[in-house]
Design brief:
Blueprint: E1 2-5, E2 12-13, E3 19-24, H1 27-38, E4 46-50, E5 53-54, H2 57-60, E6 61-64, H3 75-92, H4 94-114, H5 127-134, H6 145-160, E7 164-168, H7 170-173, H8 176-188, E8 192-197, E9 208-213, E10 219-221
Parallel strand pairs: 3-8, 3-9, 6-7, 7-8
Antiparallel strand pairs: 1-2, 1-4, 4-5, 9-10
């Protein structure tokens, strides 16, 4: 996968390192960049491509505006997860689903007979309705911010096909060891990261490729990282 930022001279292959550290020193441009991806106007500044074809940002790229506070119960994510669970039930737990349907139908039949008025009820409940009733959601009980973020990125990559995540200020919130663990883990799952920062961090992982857009809007690629 390749990425081109408006003020870069050429595209960069994210998969070569797994992560791009894009430092934008000019605060006005930094704000503009963050707001553009936040408001889904990323086409103004970014182009992502694969096999020489532009990627659909909405389908393949996801901006995580705060790596500490994000919703696991993403609507699109849970729609995909529920569909996957329903398919699994129909394929691997067909007998159990049939028994559950029979139990529900039996209960509804008894209720209708006991009540003062006649009622009809749905006697062919879809598997997806059971899944929705049980309200499956990803566990969000990790006290470790890095583990929680890794789980979130893997879920979106697996179920929504997200190939690259744009983060902001990762170095502000995570330690050097935490960043190294995050980048190694997502790299094993073929997930790319672009982290946007306003200044060059003190410590930079060997898994990151540093690109600086300085205050004069000139590009600097640090060959040491």
């Amino acid at each position: 996968m390749k990425m081109l930022y408006k003020y870069m001279s050429e595209t960069v292959n994210i998969e070569d390192t797994g992560a791009i550290l894009l430092v934008i020193e000019d605060k006005h441009l930094f704000r503009k960049t963050v707001l553009s991806v936040y408001h889904n106007n990323e086409d103004e500044l970014f182009v992502f491509s694969e096999n020489y074809k532009p990627l659909d940002f909405a389908k393949n790229i996801r901006f995580v505006d705060n790596i500490l506070t994000f919703e696991f119960a993403d609507k699109k994510l849970m729609t995909k997860v529920s569909a996957s669970l329903a398919n699994m039930c129909n394929e691997n737990f067909f007998d159990e689903i049939m028994q559950l349907r029979e139990s529900c139908n039996s209960l509804c039949s008894k209720l209708s007979k006991e009540y003062d008025f006649d009622f009809d009820f749905c006697d062919s409940i879809e598997t997806s309705a059971f899944i929705k009733l049980f309200a499956f959601t990803p566990r969000n009980d990790s006290v470790n911010s890095t583990e929680r973020l890794i789980r979130y990125l893997r879920l979106l990559a697996n179920y929504l096909g997200i190939k690259c995540f744009i983060l902001q200020n990762m170095h502000l919130y995570l330690s050097e060891n935490e960043i190294d663990k995050l980048l190694r883990t997502v790299s094993m799952h073929n997930i790319c990261i672009v982290d946007i920062e306003n200044s060059v961090p003190k410590c930079i992982s060997k898994l990151e490729k540093l690109i600086i857009i300085d205050n004069d809007l000139c590009e600097i690629i640090d060959k040491e990282y």
